[in-house]
Amino acid sequence: MRKPRWWAELALIAVVYAAYSGGRLLVRGDEASAVEHGLAILRLERLLGIDAEHPLNRLFTDVPALGIPADFAYASLHYLVTPAILLWLFRRRPAHYRAARTWLMVSTLLGLVGFTLLPTCPPRLLDPVHGFTDTMAHFSAYGWWGGEASAPRGLGGLTNQYAAMPSLHVGWALWCGVMLWRYGRTPVAKALGVAYPLLTTVVVMGTANHYLLDAVAGAAVMGAGLLLTPHVLRLARRLRGTAEEPPVVSGGWETSAGERIPGQRTVPTSADDTSTRGLPCSSEAESVGEAR
């Protein structure tokens, strides 16, 4: 299989990410329905006894030594670690790169479907009566973000703040973890592969950006993307085969038995040209004579 070209890969990733970002803005959804979806998730978690967001959010708010690094992690790591893993795979694991990249992209587009069908208000945007503190706003003086999640200060209007379900922060982190665990060759790489998605899950809940079920949905989206990836790759190969017919290497020549290069037959001399015109090549003529 031909090695991917870096410029084509860069263009493809840029197109998919632009479609993802633009799609998020186009499907902002109704605020009232987003709030209702968020409260429904919170009620379900309380019913199941898995509402871990409250204690984590109180801890991150009360202890700046935890809250501030968590805000930095939420605002930046998914923009840094994910491309770094892609680049590492492209350079060091090219045989596995195409499948890994396709898995990430398919899952990201599935996440966009989730944002469309289920706009969800994150815990930090719920009424304060529900007991959540927006740590990004609370500690905004320490970073480049404002009070609008991980968007740079003043650019919050360019984000969809009701795209909480599923959590692609967790989904992308899980993808990074799987890549490190599967293709990393050192114990440190494998340990980071386990720690990074777990840490990201704690961060998204502690900063009140996601519910636990958002994180579960992010992992489920990655699972669905993994199942779809072989089919997408197969379709891509089929389309490439249709669009780019392989060149005919022989240029229309056919080889005989024992020949390595097409047309490498005995060529008659000029003296024999008239007498052998229209007859088989010398080797073939000899075999015909022997048959007689």
Write up this protein.
This protein is mostly helical. Helices cover 64% and strands 0% of the residues. The protein is built from 11 helices and no strands. It is globular and about 60 Å long. The two termini are 50 Å apart.
Which characteristics define this entry?
mainly alpha; 11 helices; 292 residues; 0% strand; disordered C terminus
Uncertain runs: 244-256, 259-292
Percent of residues in helices: 55-70%
Query: How far do the termini sit from each other?
Result: 50 Å
Number-wise, the strands total 0
SSE class: mainly alpha
- Overall pLDDT score: 80
Question: What is the makeup of the main sheet?
Answer: none
Write a short abstract of this structure.
The chain is mostly helical. The protein is built from eleven helices and no strands. It is globular and about 60 Å long.
Q: What is the fold's blueprint, element by element?
A:
Elements: H1 6-26, H2 31-48, H3 53-62, H4 64-92, H5 94-117, H6 135-138, H7 168-183, H8 187-206, H9 212-243, H10 273-276, H11 282-291
